[in-house]
């Protein structure tokens, strides 16, 4: 606030929007694909397991596995972590550029900080294109843990709300 005023608080806002919008789009698409993959593996495991924990039921003459709540939450958590990792991997260059723009100051003559293109050129000059992936491990872990926490909480509250609605009717 002292050096840049309120404008300094919003440094990198535009690039943040450009980073987080694709990140969320990639996350939701990846989550859907990951869920199908994980459910496929879980379904295969449960159907081959003798006396599985999931209860069987018949719909139109076909046996259908019905997994327990713990299995559902585990699949959602694993799928969320996988989606978080995929989103981190795909959008990491945008996040690296965003972070650089937010932390770099303009020079002392009151000029603005570097542009997006200047930042990209500087990164590539410093370490090639792999420089755009600096910090991927921590970002991967952060996004995976955050996504797992978010989706399992959301799905739990959704199930809890649906149960409460069943009681009311």
UniProtKB/TrEMBL annotation:
Superkingdom, natural source: Eukaryota
Entry-linked PROSITE patterns: SOLCAR
Membrane topology of the entry: Multi-pass membrane protein
Chain segments annotated as transmembrane: none
Any one cellular-component term (Gene Ontology): membrane
Intracellular or extracellular location(s): Membrane
Record carries keyword Electron transport: no
UniProt entry keywords in alphabetical sequence: Membrane, Transmembrane, Transport
NADP is among the record's keywords: no
UniProt repeat feature Solcar, residue ranges: 1-37, 71-160
Family label: Belongs to the mitochondrial carrier (TC 2.A.29) family.
Protein name according to UniProt: Solute carrier family 25 member 44-like
């Amino acid at each position: 606030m002292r050096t840049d005023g309120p404008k300094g608080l919003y440094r990198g806002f535009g690039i943040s929007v450009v980073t987080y919008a694709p990140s969320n789009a990639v996350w939701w698409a990846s989550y859907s694909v990951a869920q199908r993959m994980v459910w496929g593996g879980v379904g295969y495991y449960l159907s081959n397991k003798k006396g599985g924990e999931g209860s069987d039921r018949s719909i139109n003459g076909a046996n259908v596995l019905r997994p327990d709540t713990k299995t559902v939450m585990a699949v959602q958590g694993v799928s969320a972590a996988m989606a978080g990792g995929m989103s981190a991997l795909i959008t990491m260059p945008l996040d690296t550029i965003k972070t650089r723009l937010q932390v770099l100051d303009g020079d002392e003559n009151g000029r603005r900080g570097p542009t997006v293109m200047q930042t990209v050129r500087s990164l590539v000059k410093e370490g090639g294109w792999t420089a755009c992936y600096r910090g991927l491990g921590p970002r991967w872990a952060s996004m995976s843990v955050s996504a797992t926490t978010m989706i399992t909480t959301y799905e739990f509250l959704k199930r809890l709300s649906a149960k409460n609605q069943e009681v009311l009717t």
